[in-house]
Amino acid sequence: MIRESKKPLWSLIGGCALTLVLIMPSVWAAGTIEFGENKSISLGAGLRTAYTSFEDSAGSGDDSSDFDLQSLRLYVSGQIHKNVKFTFNTECKGCVFGQDEGDIGNGGEVDVLDAIVQFEFSPEFNIWAGRMLTPADRIEMNGPYYGLNWNQFTVPLLPSDQTGQAGLLGRDDGVTIWGTLNKFQYAVGAFDGVEGGPNQDDNILLSARFAYNFLNMESNPGYYTSSTYYGGLGDIFTLALSFQSQSDGTGTATEAGDFDAVILDALFEKVLPNNDVLTLEAELKSIDADLSAAALADPSCFCLFDGDSSFFTAAYLFNNSESFGRFQPYVRYTSNEPNAGTDSDLTEVGLNYIIDSHNLRLNINWSSGDANLTGARGPDVDGLSIGFQIQI
C-alpha cells in the first residue's frame, strides 16, 4: 500500500510517465514504449464514475443520491526479457480530491492493486508471482471493468474480496501457475488468504480455475476473463469450475473454522446472422464456512458467507455499425440462499451504450431487491444508476 497525502505521489507518477514518453525512442503501440529487444513498458488508466439514487436508503425515509468516483486505476506493465514481464497497477476506489494539488481523500491512500513478476514460457505453462487475482469464478476474474452489467457484485464474494486481512478487490499475495492446452484453460495458485485471526497456524489458501472452451477460444491477459466480447471473438461457449479452500480460513482466533468454495460458471455468446450478438451468463456458487455460534457472535470474527448463490444474465447487442455506439439492453437476476438466515434476491435491468468495447461505455440501470455481496439480506430498495467507464 502506498500512502501519500500531498502531491509527491501523483507528481512522481506523472513525472515518470512524462519522462518515459520523452526519452524512449520507439513507440510501437498506443501507450507502449520500446527501448530494446524484448524490452518495453506500457502505461494506461481506467476510470468508472456514476450517479446513483436509491429509494429510502438514507435512513430518514427519503431517497439518497450521490455522484461517486467508483474506481480510478493506473496501469503499468512491461517486458524485460523474452520470457519475463511485469505488471504494476494501482487502485483509488472512491477517491476524493482535496483542495491541494494531488491531495487524495479517504486518508490519502492509493492501494497497490497488482504487483506481478510474470514468467511466461509458452501458452501451456506460465508462472506469476506477487500480488494478483486469485483464480476464481468469472465475475472475480472480470473485475468491474470487464463485466457485462454495471453492478455484477451482488453475490457473496470470496476471501480476497473482503478487504483487510485476506486481500483487496480479489487480489492476494501468492503464486499462480496457468496455461492453455488446446481448448482447456487452467490456473492453480497458492496464496496467503486470511492472515492472523482464525489462521493462527499460517495455513495457505489454495485456489484453482479450470475452463473448457467448446466453441471459439476466449482471449484475455493471462488467466483473466470477460463476461462479453461484444461478438468480437465469434461464437463462445465456456464452462468453468473453480475451487478455493483454506484451513482455519474463517472465524476467530479461538473459534476457527475451515473455508471451502465450489463454483460453476458459464458464458454463451452467439453472433446472429444480422451481426447482432446474444450473450448469456450464469453462475452457481456454494460456500461452506464452518462457523460456530460463538464465532458469529464475536465482533472480531472474519465471518464468510455460508450457503449457496446464483445469478443469470441475458443481453442483446444491436450491431448498428453506422452509429456512434451500439445499444446493449440486459437483465440480471441474483439469488442468495444462506444456510442460516433469510434468502435474498435482486433484479437489475440495464442498458449499455458501447462506444469502444470495454474501453468506453455508458450505462443506465434500475435495480430492485435486497441481495448484496455479503450474501446476507439487506434493505429491499429500488435504485437507479447512470455510469461512465473509460480505459486507455
What does this structure look like?
- With 392 residues, the chain is mainly beta.
- The protein has a domain of 211 residues.
- The protein is built from three helices and 19 strands.
- The protein has a 16-stranded antiparallel β-barrel.
- The longest helix is centred in the N-terminal third of the chain and has 16 residues.
- It starts with a strand and ends with a strand.
- 37% of the residues are buried.
Quick structural summary:
Helix content is 7%, strand content 51%.
Biggest sheet strand order reads 4-5-6-7-8-9-10-11-12-13-14-15-16-17-18-19
Q: Output the radius of gyration.
A: 21 Å
Strand content: over 45%
Count the strands? Answer: 19
Quick tags:
392 residues, mainly beta, 16-stranded antiparallel beta barrel, 3 helices, 7% helix
Helix-strand blueprint:
Elements: E1 2-3, H1 8-23, E2 26-29, E3 32-34, E4 40-54, E5 64-81, E6 84-91, E7 109-120, E8 126-133, H2 138-142, E9 171-181, E10 184-191, E11 205-213, E12 236-251, E13 256-271, E14 277-289, H3 293-297, E15 307-317, E16 326-338, E17 344-356, E18 360-369, E19 381-391
Antiparallel strand pairs: 1-7, 2-3, 3-4, 4-5, 4-19, 5-6, 6-7, 7-8, 8-9, 9-10, 10-11, 11-12, 12-13, 13-14, 14-15, 15-16, 16-17, 17-18, 18-19
